[in-house]
Write a structure and sequence with these properties.
The chain has 221 residues and is an alpha+beta fold. It has four helices and twelve strands. The strands form three sheets. The chain has a five-stranded antiparallel sheet, with no helix packed on it. The termini are far apart. 23% of the residues are buried. Belongs to the germin family.
Length: 221
């Protein structure tokens, strides 16, 4: 009898764990697509977000021409990211995927950043890139590689990563991301350019530097 009770409890625990794991991810779409709209008067379906009536969806809801245009890399870091997510393509809503084009000037950098909601797979279309990501605490291991035209590299969800053009000519890459809205947090901008600013007492202790260094870095953002 005791053994039967233990087995029953074990089965209940397994079922509870299975339910938890099943409910911890986004639900599958319940229709073919859910074109995101801002005008609530034209909406009839809800599946995570307000959606346009599928009967009035148009080809332009699933179209974006922005990635054919090179990004302007005339900035401090020498790179430009052109996103193609649900903000640009309403038809991506609930589909769990997006793209981005990354243009690099010679020696341009896509600074260390993270995507809180997506894994990224990067394909080099032109040029040579040094890329890498850092594993989580406590190891903080750098995993890096030099990529050439046609090479692919994966950046796991949530981990800090970067891309640097190590060539004397421009470089171009396409990134595919496992979210319609992957989000991006550029580390330096977030830490030294937050509004309001993070207290210098916090940053001097965190980075073990003088307050003058923190003041200078905050002034850059």
């Amino acid at each position: 009898m005791k053994k039967m009770v233990i087995n029953t409890l074990a089965c209940i625990a397994l079922l509870a764990m299975s339910f938890f794991l099943a409910s911890a991810s986004d639900p599958s779409p319940l229709q073919d697509f859910c074109v995101a709209v801002n005008d609530t008067k034209t909406t009839v379906f809800v599946n995570g977000k307000v959606c346009k009536d599928p009967k009035v969806a148009t080809p332009n809801d699933f179209f974006f021409s922005g990635l054919r245009v090179p990004g302007n890399t005339s900035n401090k870091v020498g790179s430009m990211v052109t996103p193609a997510n649900v903000a640009q393509i309403p038809g991506l809503n609930t589909l769990g995927i997006s793209l981005a084009r990354v243009d690099f000037a010679p020696y341009g950098l896509n600074p260390p950043h993270t995507h809180p909601r997506a894994t990224e797979i990067l394909t080099v279309l032109e040029g040579t890139l040094s890329v890498g990501f850092v594993t989580s605490n406590p190891d903080n291991r750098l995993i890096s590689k030099v990529l050439y035209k046609g090479d692919i590299f994966v950046f796991p969800e949530g981990l800090i990563h970067f891309q640097l053009n190590v060539g004397k000519t421009k470089a171009v890459a396409i990134a595919a991301l496992s979210s319609q809205n992957p989000g991006v947090i550029t580390i330096a901008n977030a830490v030294f350019g937050s509004k309001p600013a993070i207290s210098a007492d916090v940053l001097t202790k965190a980075f073990q530097v003088d307050k003058k260094v923190v003041d200078y870095l905050q002034s850059q953002f």
